[in-house]
Amino acid sequence: MAKLADVAEATAIRPFQVNVPEAELTELRRRINATRLPEKETVADFSQGVPLATVQKLARYWATEYDWRKVEARLNAAPNFLTEIDGLDIHFIHVRSKHENALPVVVTHGWPGSIIEQLKIVDPLTNPTAHGRSASDAFHVVIPSMPGYGFSGKPTSTGWDAQRIARAWIVLMKRLGYTKFVAQGGDWGAIVTELMATQGDPALIGVHTSMPNAVPVEIDAAASAGKPVPPGLSDEERRAYERLAFFYTQVYYAFHMGTRPQTLVGLADSPVGLATFLIDHDARSLELIARSFNGVAEGLTRDDVLDNVTLFWLTNTGVSAARLYWEYKLGFFVPKGVTIPVAVSSFPDDLYPMPRSWAERAYPNLIHYNTLPKGGHFAAWEQPALLTEEMRVGFRSLRN
Amino acid sequence: MATLEDDVEATAIRPFHVNVPEAELTELRRRIKATKWPDRETVTDASQGVQLAFMQALARYWATDYDWRRCEARLNAHPQFITEIDGLDIHFIHARSRHQDAMPLIVTHGWPGSPIEQLKIIDPLTNPTVHGGSASDAFHVVIPSMAGYGFSGKPTTPGWDPARMARAWVALMKRLGYRRFAAQGGDWGAFVTNLMAQQAPPELIGIHVNFSGAAPPDVGKALQSGGPPPAGLSAEERRAYDQMAFLYQHVPTQLMMAAHPQTLYGLADSPVALAAWMIDHDVASYGHIVKLFVDGEPYGDLTRDDILDNITLAWLTNTGVSSARLYVEYKGAFFNDYDISVPAAVSVFPEEVYQAPRSWTERAYHNLVHFNALAKGGHFAAWEQPQLFSQEVRAGFRSLRG
Lengths: 400, 402
Known about the structure:
The complex is a heterodimer. Helix content of chain A is 42%, strand content 13%.
């Protein structure tokens, strides 16, 4: 899809445009129409996974009304680039604000995500005056695709773990000429962001996270082992514990990707197999997505969901993205030892609502903490206005 | 595929023949040839799962040389039936011995299996005199397909767990006119067989399992919590413990099926997805299957066709998801402190996922009539080592014949 100039130096920043051949879209629709489905689940709820009725609605819409060209145009409306870092092509969107004093921020997506999660926050962040905020709130925004995701290269050897991604992002920001910047993320993006913050590089002056790696180690261990609520927790901590413990009973897809990603060949061969695997991330986001296919568009639209799934399909990144779980050896939710300034936003429908007490314990330099009235795991995608306001407020004290 | 007469009574035993329409086989080959592959794994071993080069070798053979009709003929060479039990159609093979005093035996397959796992033991068990045994070793053999597997019905409501299957099997054997019978199983078949023994119906003479799954409570607890092994284990017990602990860390496929089987839509839509999922069962069997397809290295009595017969059956019956649902139905542990008084025979195959120690086996089976550790064979013992397996079944039940 990319026209690569072979003569360019590895460190060159090459413009990139998305232009998927029509034949690939035709083939995708053919496969969706030819999908062979299993029978209906034997329960009336989501306890066995993605319900058949949701999948049938998704497949029907995907094969008939859905239009990839719309998101292609949205992607191409932003400046896209490729540059080689540490031996791998990294794709990114780079939108500079017209406000020269804007704060540079690198925003990292998660799994099952892509840069499509972040498209809605680009304009509010770069162009705050058009969104009722002042020029002093402006950001220069860099949104990379993680290795093995979207239009970034797929690693062919081991080693591209979250730590290496964190180091690569610092290289990227410096290559773009930013000597002082902040970072933001949720899901894997939060882990990458916090691991950037532990690199000790003074160029990174602060981070914002919507999935704080701030669950105390002993609490995380108890929750993952399914133990009863530990004694001495506040009501708020107890709620977080119960939600986290429930999530651990649901997260076997991550365990599978963490051990046997290459077995998931269905992610490459079956569009519906890919779609269902991707939308079954956590109970609340699956229910949100199922509602959107039932005609209740809150947070995410059908197009939002399918833009992301279709990007995975067209780039054939189901398995390469899954491999990030295999690469990673650290905890998902436990503190990473971040001592630089941290801003935390806790969304009520995320995997766990982060109690202030745990955030204060994990982050000695907590500069912002807020619990939001709505929103879930995909904060930038579901609640772009809330998330951008959180980033403005969260980073305000770090601006000159 | 079956011609069912709607007016027969539910308890009727209806003859069944397999006859897959040619169009379904053509469509299967079309899908295999049209497979869109992921990129290659980033390692040079199996540590990331089923390797791309192996899957491509398997797909090539499956789409070109493999012939389902041979498997169909092997299935149809045995009398097959369907009967409704507890509201669900149960498919089974019923091979009676010509020896009238033969012992009735119900043999249960596992996951990722089907009655295809057991086809090779039918003749040795029913017709022992041509396989080096005596007429007094004969069995009447019943091999059902578990609920949601193969040609059995797919449950549409929850509740078809191994304990219910065990009760259904007793009903099946009685319906076939057997007032006394024995039971055998490995993998899920062993769970069904052990639970049947715990239910202890008066008709059950004894059981034989090639995966006992018996462990003392302190061992089971330590395994579940990922804790250190209990103190005082013998060398044999410690080895088993380490194998079981390894297993707990290497069953992501099973855990995924136990959590969200319905999310695995790729098993219904992609033949190679189904094949990869089913082949990634355990380290030893996976290693053998790869060498079989890639290097032509023998794997006991298992051939490439055996492997693909089983996968093709799951594809043609679209049972990837319905068979996975058994994991969500089962609420117990992998290893249990069984309390079984029915006479029991246990065979331990060296490449099984763990080697059951005699001590734990004696603790669980209060009337252990046979215990033997074999020199070769693995998880799919009946399929891989049918002669050894048949000898074990004969030896195991010999003392229980009247």
